[in-house]
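User: Please fill in residues for this 142-position structure.
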């Protein structure tokens, strides 16, 4: 039987290894848009980078609501869906700081600065999803 995750459990789950998130936003016509993102947590907040001209950036600029899905695709399966509202910044120092941390998570410490520099240039954004509600379940098939 599936078990609900506590705050500490969902945070550890989404931060484990290099799990990617699937970010869902809403297009102007109301249809959904889902894309994978690399991310890190800052407390309960989810942070990720995107290009200023990306579909997700445009969607979030218009409608700040978003949800992320992070799952374990192996039995007994688990998932977490943090939902909230996004804020976007182009601040170079803040973008570089978090882009470096994201790069470290997904590419390793030896390439973290490279990814921090690559994702902290004009035209690149830092998105902070302030989480308002989380659903997290583990042991789906138990």
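Assistant: Residues filled in for all 142 positions:
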């Amino acid at each position: 039987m599936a078990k609900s995750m506590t705050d500490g459990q969902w945070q550890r789950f989404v931060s484990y290894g290099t799990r990617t998130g699937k970010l869902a936003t809403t297009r102007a016509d109301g249809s959904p848009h889902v894309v994978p993102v690399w991310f890190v947590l800052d407390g309960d907040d989810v942070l990720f980078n995107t290009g200023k001209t990306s579909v997700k950036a445009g969607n979030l600029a218009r409608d700040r609501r978003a949800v992320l899905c992070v799952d374990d695709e192996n039995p007994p399966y688990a998932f977490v869906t943090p939902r909230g509202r996004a804020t976007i910044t182009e601040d170079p120092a803040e973008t570089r700081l978090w882009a470096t941390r994201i790069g470290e998570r997904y590419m390793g410490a030896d390439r973290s600065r490279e990814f921090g520099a690559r994702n902290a240039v004009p035209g690149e954004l830092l998105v902070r999803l302030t989480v308002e509600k989380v659903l997290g379940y583990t042991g789906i098939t138990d």
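For context: The first strand starts at residue 3 and ends at 4.
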